[in-house]
Amino acid sequence: MAERPTSQPRVSLVVRTQGRRLRLLERALASIRRQCEPSVEAIIVEDGSSEAGALVEAMNANGSVMFRELPIAASGRCVAGNRGLEASRGEFVGFLDEDDELLPDHVSRLAAALDATPGVDLVYARANEVVCGGLVSDEVREPETLPPGQLVPFSRTALWRHNQFPIQAALFRRSLFEREGGFDPAIQLLEDWDLWIRYSACADFLAIDAVTSLFRSPREPSLIEARVREHRPWMDVLRLKHRDLIAPHRFEDVVQPPPPPPQTPTFRQALGIGRRALARKLGLGGKQ
């Protein structure tokens, strides 16, 4: 695909897709095009697909954002993310999954925070969770936006116990990727949490008290249960991988007991319930 000339972007956003949910992808890319920050590029990494070409061309027709299509052989989420990081040219880098969206001031707020704090390498903000049906089929329906939780100030020990922010909520210096590398291809799920744990071991993070993005989660109980089953083994893998960081800290020192879950918990609530049970099983803290 021919790319129009563009100056060096200040911010690069990596979008991973398999080209199966083009309606959601279009909404995600449109949210990038609406960014207030004038110097942004979006790198759309198609993992085993080339279905998004026409959509990328259409996005390039208007606006200042440069959309770049990068089709690759089917390689998985981590490889796709790393290819996007390698292709990025901005001083700052972030991610946006195809079923998530950025609010217009997301990039400008987080980039300004990085400019103002030279000693910080990653900034993250709060995000709205949108519970909806039809995520798998690309026919999103009955959306329900949950109120964002309170700002969680950055804590390494808390982050090493549970992921404090979704992947699209963060923006970081590309130099951090250059020093520490990208995703671990051996991690098939929770790869963003693994990346944040590794980065936090050598860099400072900063939390911004603003809602700048949204992420979608399934409404259907069967999909919630399936996701929890898929994620639980990888929580075990990450705790084992980073046991030298986790071992010195008691689980209850960094995680407060949650309120009783609703009758049908959201994916994140259900995963949290499983995480606490797993921690007790592994002897990482918590009372029997």
CATH architecture: Alpha-Beta Complex
> Which spans have pLDDT < 50 for at least 5 consecutive residues?
1-5, 251-262, 277-288
Please identify which CATH superfamily we are dealing with: Spore Coat Polysaccharide Biosynthesis Protein SpsA, Chain A
Helix segment tally:
11
How far do the termini sit from each other?
A: 58 Å
**Over the alpha carbons, how many angstroms does the gyration radius reach?**
19 Å
Task: Classify the secondary structure makeup into a structural class.
Answer: alpha/beta
CATH topology: Spore Coat Polysaccharide Biosynthesis Protein SpsA, Chain A
**Order of helices and strands, N to C?**
EHEHEHEEHEEHEHHEHHHH
Percent of residues in helical segments?
25-40%
For the record, the count of structural domains works out to 1
Give the percentage of residues in beta strands: 15-25%
Coarse morphology:
globular
Mean of residue pLDDT?
84
Question: What oligomeric state is this?
Answer: single chain
Largest sheet: 9 strands, mixed
Number of strands: 9
Could you explain the architecture of this structure?
This protein starts with 10 loop residues before the first strand and ends in a 7-residue tail after the last helix. Helix 8 (221-241) packs across helix 11 (267-281). The radius of gyration is 19 Å and the shape is globular. The chain has a single domain, classed as Alpha-Beta Complex (Spore Coat Polysaccharide Biosynthesis Protein SpsA, Chain A), CATH 3.90.550.10. The chain is α/β, with parallel strands linked by helices and 288 residues long. The model is unreliable at 1-5, 251-262 and 277-288 (pLDDT under 50). Strands 1, 2, 3, 4, 5, 6, 7, 8 and 9 form a nine-stranded mixed sheet that branches. The chain has eleven helices and nine strands.
